[in-house]
Every structure is written in C-alpha cells, then in structure tokens.
C-alpha cells in the first residue's frame, strides 16, 4: 500500500479494518441467527469495495442505496467508504419521484435496493443507474448483492482518501419542504463517532441495537461508534414492542437507541413483566422529548441510565447530550450540554450572541459541520451566516448553562399576539397517562391568527375525550397555550426516522376552523 493512502489519513472505512486487526474473532454483527465476526465483516467490506472499483467507479463517484436495516446494508455502507466513493442513502419511504430526483441529482453509478422497495420499478431504476444490486431472495444470482461478495479480493483496497474528501450525501427528511442534499466529509463522521463513545457512555463489551434506520445520520453515527470500539451491533428490522423485548432478553442487549414513543410502547406493554430486560444499562432517545412519567418508569423499572442525544444531518450528531445525571434534576425540553467537539451558542437575527435565559437561534461550530448543500450555494451561504452553522432551532441556556430547546422557528405558533412553543403544549399532552403520542400545530383562525391545535394518539385500550385532555392541559399551561381543539387520531404522519410531519397536518387540516370555528 502506498504512503499516500496511510499518511495523515482519516477515513470511515478504516474503522472496520483497525477493529478487525485487534479483535478478528469478536462478533461485530448479529442479524437473526447470523453471526458475523469483525474479520468476516472487514473482508466482506473489502470484497465489495473491490467489486465497485472493478466496475470502473472512480473516487468521488456516487453509490445510492434504498435499503432497510440488514447486515448486507452495513457491508455496503463501509465498502463504499473503503473504495473512496460517495454513499447516498435514500429514505425508502419517500415517493418514487423523489427517489428519481435524488438519483439524477447525484448521478449515481450504482444503486443497491432491497427487493421489497423495488415496487415494480426495476426497469425504471435500471435505466437510471448503470448497475443495480438487489438485497432479497427473489433476485437472480447476477442481481443479488451477495454476488458482489464472491471475490477472493479480501485485502484492503489501495485508495488515497483525505479527511476532507466527500464521503456521504444525505438528503434532509423533508419535514419542512423539498429535501436538500447535505455534503458530509470523512472527518465529520469519523470525529463525531469518536466523540459519541465518550458522550454516550459506550463500552467495548456493549451489545447495542441497530433498530432505528441506519440510512439516517443518528443511527449511522452510533453504529460507527460501536465499530470503533469493537462492540456488537444487533440488527433489528422494524419495531414491535414484544418482539423487541424478546430480542433484548435473547441477545442480552446492553445499550439501546429508540424514539420516546418506542420506550412508551414497551414499558407500558401488557407483557412487559414477562421479559428479563436487566441486561440494559443505557437507553438513548432522540427526535422528541420524553415525558416525565415514561422517563421515571424507565429509570425505575429498567434500572438503567437514560439520555437524550441531539443533532442534525448538517451537523453530524451528536451535537449535544442531555445526560443521565440531569434527566430528573431538570424538567422541560432540555438538550443538555455541547458534545466535546461542538461549540454551541444562541444568536439573534443580527448575528449577536446572547446570554443566559435569552431566546434565539441555536448555532454551532465544529469539525462535524457539513461541507454545504449539493448544488445549492445560496442555502449553503445562508446556513453559515455570521460564521456559525444555523440550525433553524430556537433555544436558550439556563442558569446552569444547559441548553433548552424552545421550538423550530417554523413551528412557533403565533396566536392572539402571543408566541406559543409547540413543544410546551406537547409535553403537557404527553404527561397525560392515557396519551401515547401527541403533536401541536398552529392552524389558520380568523380570530386568533393561528389556533393551537392538538393531535393525540391514545395508548392501546385507553379511551379519553377531548374535554378531559383539555382539562389536563389547563392545569399545566397558560391560558393562551391551551389547545383550542384536540383531535384524537389513530396515527400521526411520520418520516421513516420517526419525525412527525407537522407540515402534513398543517396542510391537511388548514380549513379546520373556517369550516368549524372554535372560540
């Protein structure tokens, strides 16, 4: 291997190689009954890297994926990185038109797709990408992803990779409109994943979940962290409470990452007491606040530490952590303290940094910031105005220096001359014992400009009226914060990564008060 490939090198693919050199026989991945050692994982990643290079792909070319969690997907991700190519994960849940747009935008040379996500579009995908590989039993041998692993080329590919080389283009989830391609280099992923080891209490002997979609930055960075350590990752395809608890008991999972609603689903499940979950020691949650009832129950009955991690695709996570020691000491939408690689400040609209207890936009600096937006210099410039990365989130630092999230700028509800943070309303709703999930949005109203409106999903088997939910809110919120209407629904529109799509609710119910005015 030439010196250029090893001097001053910071490369995502090296994570697997280094760990395999130290712990070749250690189990890297558990997927159902399949066990893959670090040596086997590293060799498969190398085989796939060589396959891509033998196709004629050159450093900087894009390889797109439309995949759910699987061991094959992990091989693809790290094989792409080893080849010096650019990984473009596409959320399987977006429309075919959006997928087509992304494939054209990045000029993907190869597409890897789960068979279940082809949806009779095989010919269309084949016409868009020179090479199509399929993960699934129904594909022909030549099409199967595993066909790319038949090579005997198990040595590390010789590719010159620099820390600032483009490694990934991840498209935003689209909860605010059209997705944007976020350009991420090797350094951002590598350093963020190292910081997570310290910030999120990871250990080399951990057995960790890969339950959230690994095409999303949060799960990807955590998996990378565990591969640094030589820990074991358990692949979980989709979440079902009882199946999840069985897996925890069987594999003795020690470290998990999930959405607050997932924790509520299994902690309050009728079969919760049937399973031995004592192996769990650390529970990370993200995407939304955890209501205090669930948090107290989780800490008490699981006997493990809980923490909240925050970040975004543009600022590779985690950027801040609400740590276990603060979980019950502080109440409210806390994001906690900055990670050891991130500077966090609060800024007003004129670029002035604000002091404690002053609300403004949360801004960041650090080695994990994106390179910019693909083919969008205007948005890139706007996102880094005044020399900081702008998140679009509002917040403040409390008297102890902990970051408190107020709301997304776009989600702040302006009602009757008052500003209402939707997250405050949501916390009140989630504290009601019968509520499983809830969201608050502002809808057009002739009198109030925007009316605070709640959408609530009840726990299985529970019944509740909007009147009792509003009464509960009146005991916890100011008069202007109380929902004018509560709609009890069976589900909320979400992205595949679990973010509630408030834009969908705002559009779907924009005429709610014009058709049925509420005082």
Summarize the topology.
Layout lengths: L13 H9 L4 E5 L2 E4 H17 L7 E5 L4 H12 L3 E4 L6 H11 L3 E5 L7 H7 L2 E5 L30 E6 L9 E5 H14 L7 E4 L6 H13 L2 E4 L5 H11 L3 E4 L1 H8 L14 E4 L6 H11 L2 E8 L2 E8 L11 E5 L4 E5 L12 E6 L6 E2 L3 H7 L5 E9 L5 E6 L4 E3 L2 E3 L1 H9 L4 E11 L3 E10 L7 H9 L10 E4 L13 H7 L3 H4 L4
Parallel strand pairs: 1-10, 3-4, 3-5, 5-6, 9-10, 11-12, 12-13, 24-25
Antiparallel strand pairs: 1-2, 7-8, 8-18, 13-14, 14-15, 15-20, 16-17, 17-19, 19-20, 21-22, 23-24
Concise overview:
With 519 residues, this protein is α/β, with parallel strands linked by helices. The chain has helices at 14-22, 38-54, 71-82, 96-106, 122-128, 186-199, 217-229, 241-251, 260-267, 292-302, 377-383, 422-430, 466-474, 502-508, 512-515; strands at residues 27-31, 34-37, 62-66, 86-89, 110-114, 131-135, 166-171, 181-185, 207-210, 232-235, 255-258, 282-285, 305-312, 315-322, 334-338, 343-347, 360-365, 372-373, 389-397, 403-408, 413-415, 418-420, 435-445, 449-458, 485-488. 29% of the residues lie in helices and 26% in strands.
How would you explain this protein's 3D organization?
This protein is α/β, with parallel strands linked by helices and 519 residues long. The chain folds into 3 domains: 154 residues, Rossmann fold (3-Layer(aba) Sandwich); 170 residues, ANL, N-terminal domain (Rossmann fold); 104 residues, ANL, C-terminal domain (GMP Synthetase, Chain A, domain 3, 2-Layer Sandwich). 29% of the residues lie in helices and 26% in strands. Helix 1 packs antiparallel against helix 2, helix 1 runs parallel beside helix 7 and helix 2 crosses helix 3. It starts with 13 loop residues before the first helix and ends with a helix.
